[in-house]
Amino acid sequence: MLNNENLKLQPEHRFYYRDFLHQNATEDVFEVRNNLLQTVAAYLPDITDVNKIAYAFDMAYFFHKEAKQFRGTETGKDGRKQKKGQFQEYMVHPGHVALILADAGCDVETIEAALLHDTREDTDISDELILDKFGKNVFRSVENVTKITGLTKKKIAESLTLSKLINAFDDDPRSILIKLADRLHNMRTIYGLSHSAQSGFVRETLNTFVPMARLVHLNDWADEMSDIAAEVLWPDQAAIAKKIIEDRYRPEFLDFMRVDLSISEEELFIKPMNIHNFIIVTDDGVTVKDPDSREVNIVARSNHQYARILDYFQKRLQNQDLNAVSENGITYFKYPYGDMELLFSIFDINSYLKKGASLLSLYQLPDVSRFNLTEAEEFMETYAKLQEYAREQLAKPQERLRLTRRGERENQPGEGQAAQTATEFLNFVREGLPIITYTPEGEIIVLTEGSTAWDFAFTLSGDLGLLAESALINGEPRPMESVLSEYDKVRILPGEKWTVSVTTYKNVKESRKGYVRKKLREVLKFSEKYGQSIRELVMKMGYATLTEMFKKFEESGESLDLEVIGIIARKTPPYVVNTMGYESMDELETMAEKVRLDAEDLGEEILLDLYKNLFPGLHLHKYGKLPGLIRTAPIVDLNRGWDLMPMTFKKKYCLRDEKGMVTGPDFQKFIIDSGLGSVNKSELRMYIKNVWQYEDELPGRYYELPDEPGVFSKLDSLAVFFANIVDITVEPNKKGVSAGMVGVNIKFETTDTHDKADLIEMWDFIVHFIKNRNKYKDPGLVSLDMNIPEGIPLEPFIALLEAVGITVDEMKWADEIHARRIFTFSRVEKSESQNRISKMELKALFAVLKNSYRFTAGI
Q1: Coil/strand/helix, residue 433
Q2: What CATH number does the domain containing 118 carry?
Q3: How far apart are CA 206 and CA 418, in angstroms?
Q4: Same domain, 236 and 175
Q5: Same domain, 260 and 189
Q6: Which is catalytic among the residues 19, 74, 107, 121?
Q7: Phi, psi (degrees; rounded to nearest 5) at 662
């Protein structure tokens, strides 16, 4: 029960909330309050400011306590020590959020807003009280981070809350900072949640708040949240990564540079290795990979020091000119160190400030207490530059938000449109850090790193992107797939016809792919519609003359030549074709065919890349160990997985005949749709798993063969007649292999007429003769009668004889009635009688081959 009955002070009194806290708070609350006040007192020169923060803490505690707010974890001083299942007073959380910002030296209003950030959402505090006691800046930040409630649909409420937060990029960036600090502390204390709740929370963090933190250059926070997420989602892999970091990447390993360069710890910054950098997540599993590299930043305080540092490394990198890789006060280079690679960045002070500027820089206070007058003046100049660079960085997402809002206004925004705008902006955030580009008229266009001229065109206008042929980038003609750089000035040169293609689709950012895919499918759909029925197409043209023509002929019962209609259709294209800029259906057909072929190529490329990524995990899952040889491509054709797919899957990819009737599933249509991004990832993974399953279950055999030239070609020449060798793996150093022999694993596909047992028996017989072919060269064998029916090809018989070293000189009919043929052989001089091959052995060899053709005949 709250102990407020003996309070004699009224809420209006400045000590009312303090006395309430002292009578009711737990040790956890006092601890975080004391830590916060000690931290801010160290850099706030005015004790009045410290008292303001104490007042905000005490008021927030009062309202959360009245609302009986609790959290499900107990958090230690560092914010990361949790005891699952125990409760703590809720005020510990906003106290730690404020402490995160105080540790960074943030101003009073930022700390106050952090302390109050959950009060509007979770307590009955009034807006008037916040405005009266803390002012409009604090109130606006608290209001922006408050979740929207009271809506029946939770997803709409979440979208609108996100929309409100995103709008804060423009008018109240402080609220973004507070929200990210809030999420950082929630991640630090996540282990009090259930496992399922943890998983959903960290995925939301990775999907939304980590990209947002990187957008405002809070990379340390983004790295920490990513590491915690990795520990929650992939604990085993995270433990392995931690072990590698502890064993291999300790900071003291690089202490030699501090001594050699005579620089301080502030000037040499060795970037900590992050757990998430070691974890590789693919569609079918999570693995740990050592990057074998490490970032090292060195900040030169003067031009003299900058030159001295470069000279130090230049002497050790004789084959690289460091001056050639220096630009705008930064030098990047790689430096081999033991079994790893150091990625060096040498900064002058201005370039380092520009790189380090973040949203946090706008709200940090300069602490000049430790400097003399001259040093303080220099520090204030540096501080002013840091804030200038921070505003410059923030201007990019702000400008992008304005562009996004422009589309919202054009579409008469409502709740749904506001949520859509938030989603569009968030997709932009996820694509990478923003860059500023310009139109020839000087209008700012904000894109993300890696954007191409196509992205620029589609940002200006969808129609411009569809017609774009080339671009002028800083006055130079460039292809549309050219990647843009910061501050490029771009002019798009359009044509009269659509140039959109699969190449366009490959070279635009994710946020544009859906639009481009839709337009490409329009081309294919309309082309397919035309091919289905000329009559149906012409009927839909909407041209009165053609409609009347059809009616006239149908009423009179006369027939209308479809060829004539086709000519009319080609010369009088429908409206859709006209909007694409084409003069006839023939031109559209040509474009559609190119789209089909390019989409097939891209679809195969996507599936092959997926196979390369999935193969190790599939093998590990089935056999409990990684394969000795990692395949980068299937050993069979991609279409081998098609028959294994369920009909519910295959019926999505049906073709239609000229009458519009469904003709059945088609593998090529699946490949085309894969290339155009119309097949979801889970179905692509399922398909590749079936390809792998097919090849994994193929019959195979291990043999020892002579280690000499020509053996594999002989084997292949025989196999082509009754099987397809799909993989030959040589094991040259296998234990137990006889001298002069080599171990070989062979996988093969059989024809429909053979089962696995028959095929292996034939392989065994043929390999036996290849291994012993030298002793089967028979000087006494001159001819052999074979009863081979007409129509059966002779090539496999000849190949088989040549494989065992017997040359066929002649083939002739012995008995045309019985279709008997005689093979005449070359005489091979050989003295050892034991090497003579018997006719019985040779007949048996022929019998194997004949059986592969499924006919019976005597020899």
Answers
A1: coil
A2: 1.10.3210.10
A3: 23
A4: no
A5: no
A6: 121
A7: -70, 130
Average pLDDT, the chain: 77
> Residue range 351-355: average pLDDT?
84
pLDDT confidence of residue 302 = 78
Q: Residue 447's closest CA among 355, 511, 357?
A: 511
Q: pTM of this prediction? A: 0.68
The closest alpha carbon to 66, from 121, 14, 122, 16, belongs to 122
Q: In this structure, are 150 and 71 located in the same domain?
A: yes
Q: Buried b vs exposed e over 381-396: b needs ≥16 C-beta within 10 Å?
A: eebebbbebbeebbeb
At position 181, the amino acid (one-letter code) is: A
CA 734 to chain CA centroid, nearest Å: 39
Q: Tell me which of 298, 323, 355 is where a domain ends.
A: 355
In-domain check, residue 578: no
Domain that holds residue 439: 431-504
**271 contacts: CB under 8 Å, gap ≥ 6:** 294, 295, 296, 297
Q: How many CA atoms lie within 13 A of 187 on its CB side?
A: 27
Contact indicator for 257, 294 with CB cutoff of 8 Å? no
279 and 138 both lie in a single domain: no
Rounded Cα–Cα distance for residues 367 and 660 (Å)? 77
Percent of the chain whose predicted confidence (pLDDT) is above 90: 22
Other Cβ atoms within 10 Å of 319 Cβ, number: 4
- Among the listed residues 66, 74, 107, 122, the single catalytic one is 122
Within 718-843, strands assigned E span 723-731, 741-750, 783-787, 808-815, 820-825
| 695-708 pLDDT per residue, tens | 888 887 888 877 77
Structure tokens at 818: 């019985």
Is-contact 36 98, C-beta < 8 A? yes
99 and 242 assigned to the same domain: no
| Predicted pLDDT at 746 | 82
For the CA atoms of the chain, what is the radius of gyration?
38
For residues 585 and 530, is the Cβ–Cβ distance under 8 A? Answer: yes
Confidence (pLDDT) at 829: 38
Position 118: which residue type?
D
Question: CA 246, CA 136: separation in Å to the nearest integer?
Answer: 48
Which among 781, 775, 766, 629 has a CA at the least distance from the CA of 711? 766
pLDDT at 12: 59
Q: Is residue 704 part of a domain?
A: no
Q: Are residue 198 and residue 288 in the same domain, yes or no? A: no
Q: What is the CATH number of the domain that holds 293?
A: 3.30.460
CA 258 – CA 254 distance, rounded (Å): 8
**Shared domain check, 238 and 206:** no
Is there a domain that residue 198 lies in?
A: yes
Which CATH number characterizes residue 838's domain? 3.30.70
Closest by CA to 503, choosing from 465, 530, 448, 473, is 465
Q: 């800046």: which residue's tokens?
A: 137
Distance CA 201, CA 222 (A): 15
Q: Could you confirm whether 311 is annotated as catalytic?
A: no
Condensed to tens digits (0 to 9), the pLDDT of residues 762-780 reads 677 667 666 665 544 444 4
Q: Would the pLDDT of 792 be above 70?
A: no
Q: Is 124 marked active-site?
A: no
Residues 6+ apart with CB under 8 A from 632: 612, 615
Domain boundary among 668, 697, 726: 697
DSSP-derived secondary structure letter, 501:
-
- Cα 399 to the center of its chain, rounded Å: 26
* Distance separating alpha carbons of residues 77 and 95, to the nearest angstrom: 11
Q: Give burial (CB, 10 Å; 0-12/13-18/19+) of 330.
A: middle
**Residue in the structure block whose two tokens are 């973004």:** 176
The string of DSSP codes covering 71-108 is: ESS-B-TTS--B-TT--EETTHHHHHHHHHHHHTTB-H
Number of domain units in the chain: 5
Q: Examine the domain organization and report whether 782 and 814 are in the same domain.
A: yes
For 7-45, the pLDDT digits (tens) are 444 555 667 888 889 999 989 899 999 999 999 998 998
- Residue 752, in any domain of the structure: no
| Residue 347: pLDDT over 60 | yes
